[in-house]
Design a protein that fits this description.
Helices cover 42% and strands 17% of the residues. By secondary structure, it is α+β, with helices and mostly antiparallel strands. It has 2 domains: 4-28 and 71-212; 31-69 and 218-308, no CATH class. Helix 7 packs antiparallel against helix 8.
Length: 309
């Protein structure tokens, strides 16, 4: 029979937990890069004309991706296993956080308790029992950038999944293969995976803890709305930067700005103006300007992050 002491939160991440705090992406001002909704189709068509092989095409196309903030207000863990790669993401991250679930079962920010996806809606202060796995070749960089006092750091080399599994077993926890629906073999009666899966289900039910999948949650819907709204703003900022810095003739700038508020109603006409813009600026200059824009946005993010601290 399993108990809460047998449950370990596991999180792979690219972000080292400063001062033992796992930040939600929105608080950490996490960012990524994505295709411009205004210029992406035109850039794609121009690159397709070059008849590049698929790998080269993908590499070249990604050079025109623009900065965006993730605006995700939740942090996610698996229980006693490693998050599986799926259609929703490939989780090839350098750091891992291992934290006993018992320290957070009463947290008001705990929004759902599931084997494959337990998530919180606020920053998580790690307990003194937490272990952070760090690659051997990154420890000097981590020491330089972060205060490690009071943190339990373990170094590993090789595969992070192997490091997580061996550390868990050393600590006395069972390791299970996680998939999109819980544990592999978790629905088959009689297996350890099925017993652990059932324990988590019953514990959540008996303690009135939600088991709602994140994809269907209100918090995810709200995050998507925010991401869409802010993403559109950044798209427009990027376009304006190209118009200001790309040496574009005044007549074209005027036409684009006139049609911009109505772009969704005059999609063909607007796309034609985007084609003319890319022709005039040129792919190489557009790539340079996009890189400059991204760097400017990243520096602004760093400034905001510094002010926040």
């Amino acid at each position: 029979m399993y108990k809460i002491d047998d449950c370990l939160l596991v999180r792979k991440t690219t972000v080292f937990p400063d001062n033992g705090v796992v930040e939600t992406p929105v608080h950490g001002l996490a960012y990524g890069f994505g295709t411009s909704s205004l210029l992406g189709d035109v850039i794609r068509d121009k690159l397709l004309e070059k008849e590049l092989d698929m790998d080269t095409f993908t590499s070249e196309f990604n050079k025109y991706n623009i900065y965006f903030e993730t605006f995700r207000s939740t942090i996610h863990f698996t229980i006693n296993g490693v998050v599986a790669d799926s259609m929703y993401g490939v989780f090839d991250y350098p750091y891992a956080i291992l934290e006993p679930l018992k320290h957070h079962i009463s947290d008001s920010s705990l929004k759902a308790l599931r084997a494959e996806d337990t998530y919180f809606s606020d920053d998580l202060q790690l307990s003194s029992d937490a272990i952070i796995l760090v690659p051997e070749d990154k420890i000097d960089e981590v020491r330089e950038k972060h205060n490690l006092e009071g943190l339990n750091i373990r170094l590993y080399s090789g595969n992070i999944e192997d490091a997580i599994k061996s550390t868990m077993i050393e600590l006395g926890y069972q390791f299970f293969d996680v998939n999109d629906h819980g544990y592999r073999d978790g629905l088959d009666g009689g297996t350890d995976a099925s017993h652990m899966y059932q324990f988590i289900y019953e514990f959540a039910k008996n303690n009135n803890i939600s088991q709602e999948r994140h994809f269907y949650s209100d918090i995810n819907y709200q995050d998507q709305q925010k991401r869409s709204e802010e993403g559109e703003k950044i798209d427009l900022m990027h376009l304006q930067y190209i118009l200001d810095e790309g040496g574009v003739n005044d007549e074209l700038v005027e036409k684009i700005n006139e049609l911009l508020p109505y772009k969704n109603y005059y999609r063909n006409e607007f796309n034609q103006l985007m084609r003319i813009l890319v022709e005039e600026v040129g792919l190489l200059k557009l790539q340079e300007l996009t890189n400059n824009f991204n760097n400017m946005m990243i520096e602004d993010r760093k400034r905001r992050k510094s002010v926040k601290k």
